[in-house]
Write a structure and sequence with these properties.
single chain, 8-stranded mixed beta sheet, FAD/NAD(P)-binding domain, D-Amino Acid Oxidase, Chain A, domain 2, globular, binds 3,4-dihydroxybenzoic acid, binds flavin-adenine dinucleotide
């Protein structure tokens, strides 16, 4: 088989890149090691920046998002028993975010790809990248007991943090930066109205909590937990009790509960790979970088990487110029490091660290009190939360 761009990974990065390339007639084959059903069973991000929404529109995948997504003009920072609203819309000259689950983004992109007739190969085993440091790269994989080969011009490594693409690059050719946090997030999804119409990011001496949603009848809640905990140790009842304890009293009283239908623990990590290009291989999204989820940036960063790579590939095929592809890594990394900073800062201010003493606790409270009082500080938070320009 031959294609122009081989895409490894059918998460939001790979699917969005494929759909954008299809709009300008660039052919792709997409490979994933698991099934579409498995991918659609993963519950992940929920908040989309305007830039990500624009790209989904450009890819022809925005219709359901506009019909069903929830526009949010602000959110609450809850601390010391009170809410402090961050007026995203007012502080950023009219910007807002859309609450629409990553699962639905993925479903919409998969439907678009199926409709376009582009080839997707799921449950591909032993995906291996070859010769991306030369002129004629190719990818091999196994399926149904046979080895297959895809020749291509370029490879897009969109296969997430644990994927094969980054691991295929010689260690000496890349530099990585990493911070692992000593806690995780336990997430729960339930068919029940959200406690509040806007998201609540709650600071509490017992640990961080986040009240989010997927719709006005489906809630997504998270609580900070220790890294060595397992989901089995958390009955629904224990989760709801702990969440209530970490919220201001009026929210705790208003909280409605229902049986969970998904519960999972995500570790928190900051990670960046430099550079993001190796010859004809480009790393995109979680394959190149991870942010802790506190700033809601993971999926949105994947979208901005896709934007830069799409523009580079379009220029290459339309004008024969490699300038955009040359600039890909530097452009993407400039935005990534700012989102890394914001996600690290949100995580540092809102979580309970095991080594924290009373002084550190007061520092967090002072930082939050300053945010609530100062328009300058709130504006800095808001402009990062709605997303820095591409
Ligand atoms: P992924 O979505 O990881 O997609 C990669 C794809 O590559 C997968 O389908 C995988 O099966 C495939 N793949 C992997 N290895 C191979 C291989 N060897 N061969 C072929 N295919 C392969 N972000 C937020 O903003 N908010 C959140 O609440 C949040 N929660 C998260 C919870 C978890 C558990 C995780 C892991 C991430 C979370 N994120 C969150 C981050 C966000 O979901 C990611 O940033 C986003 O999924 C990145 O998209 P991606 O397409 O780059 O990678
Ligand atoms: C969600 C996840 C986040 O990490 C976040 O900051 C906001 C919302 C969510 O899953 O809804």
């Amino acid at each position: 088989m031959r294609t122009q761009v081989a895409i490894i990974g059918s998460g939001p990065s790979g699917l969005l890149l494929g759909q954008l390339l299809a709009t300008v007639g660039i052919e792709t084959i997409l490979l994933d090691r698991v099934s579409p059903e498995y991918i659609l069973g993963r519950i992940r991000a929920g908040v989309l920046e305007d830039g990500a929404v624009r790209l989904l529109d450009q890819a022809g995948a925005g219709a359901r998002l506009h019909a069903e997504g929830l526009i949010h003009d602000g959110f609450s920072l809850a601390f010391s028993g009170q809410d402090h609203r961050i007026d995203l819309h007012g502080l950023t000259g009219g910007k807002r975010v859309t609450v629409y689950g990553q699962t639905e983004v993925t479903r919409d992109l998969m439907a678009g790809r199926a409709q376009s007739g582009a080839l997707s190969i799921y449950e591909a085993e032993a995906v291996t990248l070859h010769d991306f440091d030369r002129d004629a790269p190719y990818v091999t994989y196994q399926k149904d007991g046979q080895t297959h080969r895809i020749d291509c011009d370029f490879i897009a490594g969109c296969d997430g943090f644990h994927g094969v693409s980054r691991k295929s690059v010689p260690e000496t050719a890349l530099r990585t930066f990493e911070k692992i946090y000593p806690f995780g997030w336990l997430g729960l999804l339930a068919e029940v109205a959200p406690v509040s119409p806007e998201l609540i990011y709650a600071h509490h001496p017992r640990g961080f909590a986040l009240c989010s949603m997927r719709s006005m009848t489906r809630s997504r809640y998270y609580i900070q937990c220790s890294v060595d905990e397992t989901v089995d140790a958390w009955s629904d009842e224990r989760f709801w009790d702990e969440l209530r304890r970490r919220l201001p009293a009026h929210h705790a009283e208003a909280l409605r509960t229902a049986p969970s239908f998904e519960k999972s623990i995500a570790p928190l990590r900051s990670f960046v790979t430099e550079p993001m290009r190796f010859g004809r291989l480009f790393l995109v999204g979680d394959a190149a970088h991870i942010v802790p989820p506190t700033g809601a940036k993971g999926l949105n960063l994947a979208a901005s990487d896709v934007h830069y790579l799409f523009e580079g590939l379009r220029e290459q095929y339309r004008d024969g110029s490699g300038a955009g592809l040359e600039a890909y890594s530097a452009k993407a990394l400039a935005r990534i490091w700012k989102a890394e900073r914001f996600s690290w800062w949100m995580t540092s201010v809102l979580h309970r660290f095991p080594t924290m003493g009373d002084f550190d606790q007061r520092m967090q409270e002072a930082e939050l009190a300053y945010l609530a009082q100062s328009q300058a500080a709130s504006t800095a938070l808001a402009e990062n939360y709605v997303g820095l320009p591409f």
